[in-house]
Amino acid sequence: MQKGLILILLWLAFPLIGMAQKLRVAVAANAQFVAEVLAKEFKQQMGIDAELIVSSSGKLTTQIEQGAPFNMFLSADMKYPQELYAKQLTTAKPVIYAYGTLVMWSKRGIDLSKGLNALTNVAVKKIAIANSKLAPYGEAAEQAMERSGLLAKVKTKLVYGESIAQVNQYLLTGAADVAFTAKSIVLDPAQKNTGHWKEVNAKLYKPIAQGIVIVKTSKGETLKQAKQFYNFLFSAKAKQIFQQYGYK
Fold first, then answer.
1. N or C: which end of the chain has fewer CB within 10 A?
2. Given phi > 0 = left and psi -120 to 50 = alpha, else beta, which region is 88?
3. What is the spatial distance between Cα 163 and Cα 242, in angstroms, rounded to a whole number?
């Protein structure tokens, strides 16, 4: 009887064990779509599911600092992973996995051919931008406008999102006329015929070097899986996928 009870308890515990060992990857919002493709390819190759948690780099960093059960972190910059490394919350120093590209995106008939100067068009009432304190792409957008001498001129038009994902929603729902987003977003097949976009002159903002780290709380099987996914992200196949989404 006692042996039977133990077997039942072990059987009931299996779902919880599975949940505890699931690979959980924190992903900056700019890399959401490419990460989904990468995770699918990784599953095909290795048979391992990677659960993606998408938010701004700043918010994900705070969650990791507070003990969120993430195994890996794909940031939109190197600053946040460096902060985690400095606090001894990662297994190693962050490494650059890709360089991102900033674009302007519009669903409406707004001419973006003039680059940032298009923002001064009277037809542009609202410009969506990610919070620069949380999202590196928002910081890059502010840098570009500042260096172009346009930030003060368009400041009253700016509407802020917590992340690139929220910025995209502002544009897609019509709450904004123009949005600063990642090239990886507009190259996603689901957005292929959604409005038009133009790259922001890369000389106007610091290179968006995006870093990856494995979180130190990863143990046992999830640590092994995290290392496998980490190595996969630097493979020839992953590099090809990143390039398809506009990363360098």
1. N
2. left
3. 20
Which CATH number is associated with domain 2-99+207-244? 3.40.190.10
CATH number of the structural domain 102-204: 3.40.190.10
Strands 178-182 and 127-130: parallel
Ranges of the chain whose pLDDT falls below 50: 1-20
Q: How many other CB atoms are there within 10 angstroms of residue 133's CB atom?
A: 10
* CA separation for the pair 212, 47 (Å, rounded): 22
How many Å apart are CA 207 and CA 101, to the nearest integer? 8
* 102-204 and 2-99+207-244 share a CATH fold: yes
pLDDT for the residue 19: 45
